[in-house]
Design goal:
- The complex is a heterodimer of chains A (116) and B (453).
- Chain A is globular, with a radius of gyration of 14 Å.
- In chain A, the strands form 2 sheets. A 3-stranded antiparallel sheet of chain A has the order 1-3-2. Chain A has a two-stranded antiparallel sheet with strand order 4-5.
- Chain A has one domain.
- Chain A has 116 residues and is an alpha+beta fold.
- Chain B is of the alpha/beta class and 453 residues long.
- Chain B folds into 2 domains: 168 residues, Sulfate adenylyltransferase (Roll), CATH 3.10.400.10; 250 residues, HUPs (Rossmann fold, 3-Layer(aba) Sandwich).
- Chain B has 14 helices and 18 strands.
- In chain B, strands 1, 4, 5, 6, 7 and 8 form a 6-stranded mixed sheet that branches.
- In chain B, α10 crosses α11.
- Chain B is globular, with a radius of gyration of 22 Å.
- Classes of the chains: A alpha+beta (116), B alpha/beta (453).
Amino acid sequence: MSKFMSVLLDDKRMEAIKGSGLEEKIDKMFGGALNAFTLELSDDKAKEVMDAFFSARVDSRGFITDVPIAFSRTLFEEIAKAKSLGDDVIDGVLARVDEIKEAAEKESEFLPVPEL
Amino acid sequence: MLQIETPPPHGGRLIERVVRDPELGRKWAKNCAAAYDIKPTLSDGVPIRNVYREIMSICYGFFSPVEGSMKKAEVERILKERRLLNDWIFPYPLVFDITEEELKDLGVTVGDRLLLRLKGKPFAILDITEIWRIDDAEELATKTFGTPEGNPEVVQEPFNAKMPGWVIYKSLKPVVLAGKYTIINEPTFLEPFDRFWFPPRKSREEYARRGWRTVINHQTRNVPHIGHEFLMKDAGFTGDTEPCHGIQVNAIIGVKRAGDYPDEAIIEGHEAVNLGGYIKPERHIVTFTLWDMRYGNPLESMLHGIIRQNMGCTHHMFGRDHAAVGEYYEMFATQTLWSKGIPSYGFPASVNDVPYGLQIRPQNMKEFWYCPVCNEIAYSECCGHTKEKQKFSGSFVRGMVAEGIFPPKVIFRPEVYKVIVKWWKEFGFPFCNAKYVKEKEVRLEVDLPDMDI
């Protein structure tokens, strides 16, 4: 069964995709309170992601979660670059696994506190 | 009789084994044959348990009628029938375990009194009534939780090193000193734990003072999102001739796993729900119990029932995957235990309907989700828009927090999120990481007064 991944879109990310044609692919979640892209992953791609990141798990909705923040950030960058939500985006992310893992090591010690 | 009254403590009598007179405590400490410094149990260098939490919960009555470290016959009966030697039901072995070398160094024997030190100071005594050996800790761990073959009603997968409770029992040292504990130097809680400390005698007094005849408990080890809040609100409609007077949040505070929210954020996050007026403080109270979670789903729920009945609750809400990790147990195993029983664990009927069972009543709940059609938080057994539903996935919410995205009100109350950020500033991370887990087990939740002996 295919799995899914969600990429949350804050104001900065919404700005970055303006005019890219990706706007029509945005999912409105929780009554429009959250914007997100939902990617459907083939079995093979889902397995590759799960194998690459020990912390990754599939939640009760069938979504892959608990990946490093660096993974989510890279995933958004690849989506913006490819203007697509297909498997090619996941390929782009997996090609940058070493870079993501290096960033993930640092983020396991410290994550910047958001401004309120 | 339509109206429900506060149930008696499990076992009929609230256990309190705390010496509050420092002079008497000092005198008892002086008479000890030897002294032992309590340290956390480690697995691959990571703290997984600290027996001090069991001593606290036993001596303040959360685990009534248990009074100390268990004898061999009692542990064997629990593993076979989930009953203490006095017949009252109980899910888990609780033991004070040491190594052979430690036993030799201590030189204690049956009849001796052992002084237990915590953070280098006198804390409690153990009156040794039996010294016995655990022959095979892995076997004991497996018997504690069960197997798919032996407990086919609820166990789906063999327990292994990814199950924290199984690792706790597998890591037990081979020598057990059995006997009653008594706290002889009462610890003081660190902030913010101090204002949430309601051991059973105090919680019962508090509920009587507030005029709460019926109280429903919410088990937690999470900062509350809106799904949790609606579970509390809706389950709170349970009662007798009227909804429950009180909603008790009882957080399990203990050794943490990486990725959990810090304990400080959990209890203050729940407090923010009532300070923000989402459930008014007159109807809502936040409390905690010290315990290193075993994640035993139905067995853990039995312990939760015991703790909360001892605290004076009349009802307990149970959701799916209660106190669970992984997929070892069937997701509604806890509700099975409380509705029809689990014969392979020794319960042919609900734990309410067996001799020497529990009197606290279960309120088995399904799920809450956001429904964009109803435009509200909906209960799964009411809402017909199953295709459109949006679930409150804990890991999804954690991901959003870690990315620093301010959660919408429909997921977290802003007051609750501010608590997460407050402790994020303190620890440099929104969740427990390896550093937090290690430092917490040095800091613990308490300090102890000086006691010269």
